[in-house]
Amino acid sequence: MENWQYNPEEKSGVLTFDGDMTISHVSDIKECLLEAFSDAENVTVDVSAATSVDVAGIQLLCACLRFSKGRGKKMSLRLGENTIFSEFLDEVGFSRDFICA
């Protein structure tokens, strides 16, 4: 479901998710995100291989964005060519730049 690649010299990493990013998996996704931010200052969350997403998945990513900013860390979202994810973001009122207000 996830793959964490960390570069200790740059204190950055890429957390790649494939499969579902839905309410059924929110607990597992949260643990992966917390682990990534315990290691890195900059985390790219790559959802280009995610096969489905729901509001719970988006809310978790928004919470993680706020969490990272509150700790002086940086999170970015990589959509790639994932039209399922980008169309869902549009559907629920988020831009492709993934700015959570």
Write the layout of secondary structure elements.
Blueprint: E1 2-7, E2 12-21, H1 26-39, E3 42-53, H2 55-70, E4 74-78, H3 83-91
Helix pairs in contact: 1-2
What does this protein structure show overall?
With 101 residues, the chain is α/β, with parallel strands linked by helices. It has a single domain, classed as STAS domain (Transcription Regulator spoIIAA, 2-Layer Sandwich), CATH 3.30.750. 39% of the residues lie in helices and 33% in strands. The protein has three helices and four strands. It has a four-stranded mixed beta sheet with strand order 1-2-3-4, with helices on both faces. Helix 2 links the parallel strand 3 and strand 4 (74-78). Helix 1 (26-39) runs parallel beside helix 2. 23% of the residues are buried. The mean pLDDT is 91.
Kindly summarize this structure in a few lines.
The chain is of the alpha/beta class and 101 residues long. The protein has helices at residues 26-39, 55-70, 83-91; strands spanning 2-7, 12-21, 42-53, 74-78. The chain starts with a strand and ends in a 10-residue tail after the last helix.
